Structure formats: structure tokens, C-alpha cells
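Figure 6 in text form: structure in, sequence out.
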């Protein structure tokens, strides 16, 4: 899902396909890149989107593919900023945003009663930010935790994506919310975290939680 000041489907498609080609090309050289669940410590030379994935995974302590959706979202978004003053690129729950005013993003948390009842307000995104969400109960992404949603805010969308996975992996129960957030606070570049498990929620950092009226979970 892309929002911009005007229709930009052609450059968006071109950049998305370029990212896919770069990533697939790297995987052909290093097949383990697509399956490893630990930081990538082999050949780090590669296209920018691949380097972003590697750096993000290493910072969060997870494999580089944990950052793929966020890295592609930001790559496409940065390209579109050549043609538009404001851009939102959403890629499977991982969002790159550049707007001139504060924004509120609804937090989807599956069957949790808090799903789409709470929004995350970010003061500004004038330089572009990433807001990425990982879930053990929604979607196809791999998570070994039990959180309904872990949303991370960072200036790097790839890092937000990788960090959301790493934090989510540490949420095995309600008691795991605080330790998982404490872990995430130590990841350099993470500026905000929200964790939802059932009826419970924990938050930290540069995020303001606001009620979403009229929204259904």
C-alpha cells in the first residue's frame, strides 16, 4: 500500500523489482542468507538493500531476512521522495513514513481486544521513519514468541523490522512483556516499542498511545 502526493506506480514498481532482483541475486551467491536465523557474519558486500538487511539483523541479533520487508519499504519510499513531498509505504505491516505533520497509526493485534482500539502517535517523520510490527498470531512471518503485536519505531525501517522480530521472540507470556521491552531498549537506533499480548500492553520510548474511536478489533 502506497500513499503519495500523486500517482507513482511506475517508479514504485521499478524500485520494488530492483530490490527483489538485488536480494535474489545475493541469495544465489549465498544460499544460507535466506534461511539463517542468526546475524550474517559472512560476505557483507552487496547492494544497499542487502547491506541494510545485514546491518539491521546484526544490530537486533537476528537473521537478515527478518529485515527484508522493512528494508524494501524504505528503499521504495526513499525513491518516491524524489517525486513526492510526503510518502507512506506499507509492506505487510512494516511501514516507511515521511510526512510533514504528526501521524497516528492503528495497531492491529489479531484477536486481542486491544486490536485497532489503540493508535501510536509519532511527533513527526520529516526525515522518514520506520514503524514495523511483528506478530506470533497474525501473518506468515516467523516468530517464536506469543505476542499479538510488537511494534517498533526507528529512523531505519530495516532496523525497526528486525528489532520487532527480535523483541517478539522474547515474549512467551504476559510476564515476558517487560523483559522483552528492556531488551529492545538496548538496540541502538530503536526509539519506541509497543507490545500487545491479549488484554495487556507495554510501551516505551518516543510513542504516544491514543484511543481509536469507532474502530473494531
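Output sequence:
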Amino acid at each position: 500500500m502506497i500513499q503519495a502526493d500523486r500517482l507513482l506506480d511506475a517508479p514504485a514498481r521499478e524500485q520494488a523489482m530492483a530490490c527483489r532482483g538485488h536480494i535474489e541475486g545475493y541469495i544465489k551467491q549465498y544460499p544460507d542468507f535466506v534461511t539463517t536465523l542468526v546475524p550474517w557474519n559472512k560476505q557483507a558486500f552487496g547492494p544497499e538493500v542487502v547491506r541494510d538487511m545485514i546491518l539491521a539483523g546484526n544490530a537486533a541479533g537476528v537473521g537478515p531476512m527478518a529485515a527484508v520487508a522493512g528494508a524494501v519499504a524504505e528503499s521504495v519510499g526513499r525513491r518516491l521522495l524524489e517525486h513526492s513531498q510526503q510518502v507512506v509505504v506499507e509492506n505487510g505491516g512494516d511501514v516507511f513514513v515521511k510526512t510533514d505533520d504528526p501521524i497516528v497509526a492503528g495497531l492491529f493485534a489479531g484477536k486481542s481486544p486491544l486490536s485497532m482500539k489503540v493508535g501510536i502517535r509519532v511527533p513527526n517523520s520529516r526525515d522518514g521513519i520506520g514503524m514495523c510490527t511483528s506478530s506470533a498470531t497474525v501473518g506468515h512471518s516467523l516468530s517464536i514468541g506469543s505476542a499479538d503485536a510488537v511494534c517498533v519505531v526507528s529512523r531505519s525501517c530495516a532496523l525497526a523490522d528486525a528489532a520487532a522480530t527480535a523483541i517478539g521472540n522474547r515474549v512467551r507470556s504476559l510476564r515476558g512483556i517487560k523483559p522483552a521491552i528492556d531488551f529492545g531498549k538496548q538496540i541502538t537506533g530503536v526509539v519506541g516499542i509497543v507490545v500487545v499480548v491479549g488484554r495487556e500492553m507495554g510501551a516505551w520510548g518516543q510513542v504516544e498511545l491514543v484511543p481509536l474511536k469507532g474502530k473494531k478489533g
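Caption detail: The first helix runs from residue 9 to 29.
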